[in-house]
Design goal:
The protein has about 250 residues and is α/β, with parallel strands linked by helices. It has a single domain (about 5-245), classed as TIM Barrel. About 40% of the residues lie in helices and about 20% in strands. Strands 1-2-3-4-5-6-7-8 form an eight-stranded parallel β-barrel, surrounded by eight helices. The longest helix is centred in the N-terminal third of the chain and has 14 residues, at about 60-75. The radius of gyration is 17 Å and the shape is globular. The two termini are about 20 Å apart.
């Protein structure tokens, strides 16, 4: 899906094309966003901004996605972009996925954010308890030919993450991006139960954490905050560890 097996994970209000390109020398993928697509999710994002968090709120979110993915493509960088999106309805998911398909980019459905405003309208983490709607989102995205990932959070009360993973795989998901939330073994459970491309996230900071996730069966790891400083020590350690762990190509 991408090489090297390091992704940079979307940072609210920061993860744009410039951010992705800054990491291109070391990462194989970059999830831009998150982007609120429909009016309910955009109103939630406005409320989040009102309490001093950063959010992308372009006038036209679909045009913004097309522009940002185009900027990465125009730079001819060795990094595969994706877009992390939030919505309460499936049609804008379909439209965003079609744009991703045109750019050979990943469409990532956000079932991860836990801000109260987003959860109140049915976005983010709330989707983990509404697998029918999450499956609908994944299915319409997959129908466009886009590569589809779902960003999820472990440790949510009442949520069987393996069951969620099996459900999204059945309707066309290609990848699952797991914020392990100090429940690292769940990465192994999902990897064993599905053929999804598993991206592990949470406290990936050094050689030991990279090796731990890969040993559980993750196909790749991702970092969030360290991506703000792609020349920094933490990002460098992770990138080096991922390169070290890459399987040798036979002669």
């Amino acid at each position: 899906m991408f090489e090297p097996r390091l992704a940079v994970a979307s940072l609210s209000g920061e993860a744009d094309a410039e951010w992705a390109l800054a990491a291109a020398d070391h990462a194989g993928a970059a999830f831009l966003g998150g982007i609120a697509l429909d009016e309910a999710s955009r109103e939630a994002a406005r409320e989040i901004v009102a309490r001093d968090r950063e959010e992308f709120l372009p006038r036209d979110p679909l045009a913004f996605i097309d522009e940002q993915l185009g900027a990465v493509a125009d730079a001819d960088a060795a990094i595969r972009p994706g877009i992390n999106v939030r919505a309460t309805t499936k049609e804008p998911i379909r439209e965003a996925a079609a744009i991703c398909a045109d750019h050979d980019a990943l469409l990532e459905v956000n079932a991860h954010c836990r801000q109260d405003e987003l959860c109140a309208v049915g976005c983010g983490e709330r989707l983990l308890a509404d697998t029918d709607r999450l499956a609908d989102f994944v299915a319409v995205a997959a129908e466009t030919g886009a590569t589809v990932s779902v960003k999820v959070r472990a440790g949510v009360d009442g949520v069987d993450l393996v069951a969620v993973a099996e459900r999204i795989e059945a309707v066309g998901a290609d990848a699952i991006h797991i914020d392990a939330m100090d429940s690292e073994p769940v990465v192994g459970d999902v990897a064993a139960a599905t053929d999804l491309f598993v991206i592990a996230n949470n406290e990936v900071r050094d050689r030991e954490s990279v090796r731990e996730y890969l040993a559980y069966g993750a196909d790749a790891v991702s970092v969030g905050r360290p991506s703000r400083d792609p020349e920094g020590a933490v990002f460098g350690r992770v990138a080096a560890a991922v390169t070290e762990a890459e399987p040798e190509v036979p002669p």
